[in-house]
Amino acid sequence: MTGIRCRQGASSVRHRSLRGCARAAAASLLAAVLAACAPLPTQPDREVPLPQSWRGAPAGAAATADPARWWRELGDPALDALVDAALAQNLGLAEAQHRLRAARAQSEATRLRFVPQLNARTLSAPNVESTASYFQVGFDASWELGLFGRRDAEKQVAAADVAQADADVAAARVSVVAETVRTYLELRAAQARCDVQRRQLAAAQATLQRARRLQALGLGGSTEVDKAQSAWQSEQARAAQLAGLPPAQAQALAQLLGRTQIDLDWLQPAPLPVVPAAAAAPAPAELLRTRPEIRRAEWAVERAAGELGIARAELWPQLNIGGSLTYASKLDGDELLPPTSIVSIGPMISIPLLDWGMRRAAAVAHGELLAAAVIRYRAAVVDGAAEVQNSLAALQTARERHAALAARVAEAPQRLARITRLQALGLADASGLAEAERAEIELDAERLDAQATALQALVALYKALGGAPPPLEAAP
After folding, report:
1. CA-CA distance, 439 to 444, in Å (whole number)?
2. What are the angstrom distances between the C-alpha of 466 and each of 67, 88, 373, 444?
3. DSSP assignment of 119-133, as one string?
4. Which one of 59, 100, 247, 431 is CB 3.0 to 4.6 Å from 165, fit for a cystine?
5. Domain span at residue 394?
6. Strand pairing of 318-332 and 335-336?
7. Domain assignment present for 128
8. CATH number for position 444
């Protein structure tokens, strides 16, 4: 009786132990399910306060009709055609577009990683005694569940890669448009400077001839002739230097269009576009949507958060559902035995037991990288706002200088007319008129430089604003 009671007591203990193990297993399974449904890591605050409006922005300015095609405000059909050609042919932009398509394909591959996979296999091998051979054919199926946030985190990383590649395309597009417009404007400005330089050279030559006539008449000395000849030689050297600028700018345009040869039509003289009227700059908050550097930094935060989610998922078991169907046949001497089939299905679990804190250290590292990405995003916003503000100030200064010089140039014919009348009355000599003509040419050259500077400042502003973006991906 005592032994029976002992056996009954042992059986009771075993039953309690089994029930405890079952409860523990159920609790572990519940914890696993809850962890599998856990949300992605919470991102740190990345908000950066922006001003309500830009400081020094022109008051009462009209809004730009189409910021994505801002260069059309210059009203130059040749420039419009060049920009269209650059967008279609630029090699850097084409490379960025291929990388975007590659990122999209990789994102699709990441999505398909977490769907059931099926593989076929065959095997033919002799046994160890070399008295028989085996042939197997079968199918293997596996399904990685991506629990504990792994699947969502990897999808987030893939989506961020696509968005960053899209931002790279936008940055390349903005750069190509800005560089094409800038180079074209430099080409036209160089041609205009060459024209002004020809006028300056002609005026210097006329001064030299007058000094020589005065010397021949005994009304002037060799000092005036030497001075006039030195000025004429300086203008000649400057004319030769300026003559090399248009071909260099044309070659830069060809490079932007992915060509090695220039189009000779580009070297045909054409006027420098007029500085357009002041346009209203978009609100500062628009930078978060249009500036590629900010968009890329924003998606870099998303990617860092996804990588942190993957690192945290590595702390938990990895669960796959797998199965196989195998047909095997044995050839024993001359006898082929009937085939047999084996079917198996079940979970495959990989549990991290002891890694000396390696996975946890990786999770901590990715947490710090997420914080660094947030700071990089804030810096991108601050840098972008500063660049726009500085570009606005530079454009305003250039506009005012150009307007002042243009007004002085408009008054120059009246000054020349007064000096001409005084010369006709004998109250002014030829040297005074020549000096006034040279001053008018120099003033026109200064006005031309101010016009070119204002146009380049306009290009810099639209580049800072992220002008000419391609279609935008959804923001995170």
Report:
1. 9
2. 9, 19, 21, 33
3. EEEEEEEE-TTSSEE
4. 100
5. 41-113+149-315+359-465
6. antiparallel
7. no
8. 1.20.1600.10
> Between helices 91-112 and 150-216, what is the axis angle to 10°?
180
Q: Cβ distance 423 to 149 under 8 Å?
A: no
Question: Phi-psi region for residue 281, left (φ > 0), alpha (ψ -120 to 50) or beta?
Answer: beta
Using DSSP's 3-state secondary structure scheme, residue 244 falls into coil
C-alpha closest to that of 116 among 345, 359, 410, 406: 345
> Is 397 domain-assigned?
yes
Task: In the chain, count H helices and then E strands.
Answer: 10, 7
User: Cα 235 from chain centroid?
Assistant: 43
The whole model's pTM is what? Answer: 0.80
* Residue 268, token pair as written in the block: 């045909």
Q: Given its phi and psi angles, is residue 437 left (phi above 0), alpha (psi -120 to 50 degrees) or beta?
A: alpha
282 phi/psi in degrees, rounded to 5? -60, 160
Helix (H, G, I), strand (E, B) or coil at 327: strand
Q: Which residues contact 310 (CB under 8 A, 6 or more apart)?
A: 150, 153, 154, 157, 366
Amino acid at 46: R
179 token code pair: 């560089």
The answer to whether position 471 is within a domain reads no
Q: Which of 195, 217, 214, 326 minimizes the C-alpha distance to 271?
A: 195
Per-residue pLDDT of the chain (476 residues; tens, 9 = 90+): 333 333 333 344 334 444 544 454 444 444 444 444 555 666 677 788 888 888 877 665 555 557 788 899 899 999 999 999 999 999 999 999 999 999 999 888 888 777 787 787 777 666 555 566 777 777 777 777 777 888 888 898 899 999 999 999 999 999 999 999 999 999 999 999 999 889 888 888 888 888 888 777 777 778 888 888 888 888 889 989 989 999 999 999 999 999 999 999 999 999 999 988 877 778 888 888 889 999 999 999 999 999 899 888 888 888 878 777 787 776 666 666 677 777 777 777 777 788 888 889 988 999 999 999 999 999 999 999 999 999 999 999 999 999 998 888 887 677 666 666 666 666 556 566 667 777 788 888 899 999 999 999 999 999 998 876 554 443 34
Do the Cβ atoms of 243 and 196 come closer than 8 Å? no
The answer for residues whose C-beta is within 8 angstroms of residue 252's C-beta and 6 or more apart is 183
Strands 279-280 and 132-144: unpaired
For the chain, the maximum distance between any two Cα atoms, rounded to a whole number of angstroms, is 154
> In this structure, are strands 279-280 and 62-63 parallel, antiparallel, or unpaired?
parallel
91 φ/ψ angles, rounded to the nearest 5 degrees: -75, -40
Domain total in the chain: 1
Give CA–CA dist 368/362, Å, rounded.
10
